[in-house]
Design goal:
- The structure is a single chain.
- The chain is α/β, with parallel strands linked by helices.
- It folds into two domains: 238 residues, Rossmann fold (3-Layer(aba) Sandwich), CATH 3.40.50.1820; 75 residues, no CATH class.
- The chain contains eleven helices and nine strands.
- Strands 1-9-8-7-6-4-5-3-2 form a nine-stranded mixed β-sheet.
- α2 links the parallel β4 and β5.
- It is globular.
């Protein structure tokens, strides 16, 4: 059994509100990290930008953001800050189209595009000099990470030591249905505004593709958007096909590298099907820590800047136990 029954996360009363916990980082964290950017050219003629924050360490923390995030996302800068203080160099990944510049191809990133993660680690192997990599993925980035670890690939880097997913939509269909609920529409609209803006750029870049611009702009939820954009540009039949093939839950039994999923039962973005209890019980390499509170990529403890850094310290502690 690899389920952690008791978590140390105990927030103040205010942060037992799932919505406050979810939005607080975005609104109030003020943590600056001095990143140095390197551009990685991909095998399909595109690029991804990787932002480094170095301390001279032999250990590298690789951080993957969530949907419409970037290296400047508050949860990324928080972990980068704490990782540097604890003796890790950091590589904060900007997935395709997320570094502030439109990527070159029609398709960009999606929840299961694991070949991009493989290329990133190969790039690090050839361009950097680290003894070990620790991987952390948030939300969509966590699904990408756990799917990658469970695919039983033949191109894993020998430097990859462990991975952690935080607030992961392990069942993409269930998560999409949860965030589409009425009381979550503020979150949904925030994502769609950003996604539609990027999609308009793509339509301008590739008018010959005949994408249904009006249907995309009229999308009210991820079912609509993934049907009209994500699925067709990435070779899937429709949203259901995209979700089914890329949900990491079905890959968890293949994980053979020490891994941890931190998730909360009060996460407004996730369904009950996103908590893979049975999978954790059956795989000794895959650990699951389920908290009562935390929201979505929240895990604030108090109203201080950084909000206690429980999540960041928990991530570091897990990796340190494997050292």
């Amino acid at each position: 059994m690899a389920v952690i029954d008791v978590s140390t996360y105990e927030p103040s009363m205010a942060f037992r509100s799932k919505h406050l916990n979810t939005i607080y980082r975005t609104l109030f964290h003020r943590i600056n990290v001095n990143f140095e950017r390197k551009r990685m050219e991909t095998s399909d003629g595109d690029f991804m930008d990787i932002d480094f924050s170095k301390t001279g360490s032999s250990k590298l923390m690789v951080i993957i953001h969530g949907l419409e995030g970037s290296s400047s996302s508050k949860y990324v800068t928080a972990l980068s800050h704490i990782s540097n203080k604890q003796g890790y160099d950091v590589a904060a990944i900007n997935l395709r189209g997320c570094s502030g510049e439109a990527n070159r191809n029609l398709y960009s990133y999606h929840s299961g595009k694991t070949d991009d993660l493989a290329e990133i680690l190969a790039f690090l192997d050839h361009s950097e000099n680290y003894e070990s990599y620790c991987l952390v993925g948030y939300s969509l980035g966590g699904n990408l990470l756990l799917k990658y670890l469970g695919e039983e690939r033949n191109d894993y880097s020998t430097k990859l030591k462990a991975g952690i997913g935080v607030s992961v939509p392990c069942d993409l269909k269930g998560s999409s249905e949860s965030i589409a609920k009425f009381w979550n529409m503020v979150y949904m609209q925030r994502f769609l505004i950003s996604l539609k803006k990027k999609t308009l750029i793509k339509i301008g870049q590739f008018p010959e593709m005949g994408l249904d611009k009006q249907a995309i702009l009229n999308s009210k939820n991820f079912l609509d958007f993934d049907n009209y954009f994500t699925a067709p540009v990435n070779g899937f039949l429709d949203a259901e096909d995209y979700w089914k093939k890329n949900s990491c839950k079905q890959f968890l039994d293949g994980i053979k590298i020490p891994s941890l999923l931190i998730t909360s039962v009060d996460d407004p973005f996730l369904s009950a099907s996103c908590i893979p209890l049975q999978e954790a019980k059956e795989n000794k390499y895959f650990h699951l820590e389920v908290t009562n509170y935390g929201g979505h990529v929240g895990y604030n403890s108090n109203f201080e800047n950084g909000s206690g850094f429980w999540l960041e310290r928990r991530i570091i502690d897990y990796f340190e136990t494997l050292a």
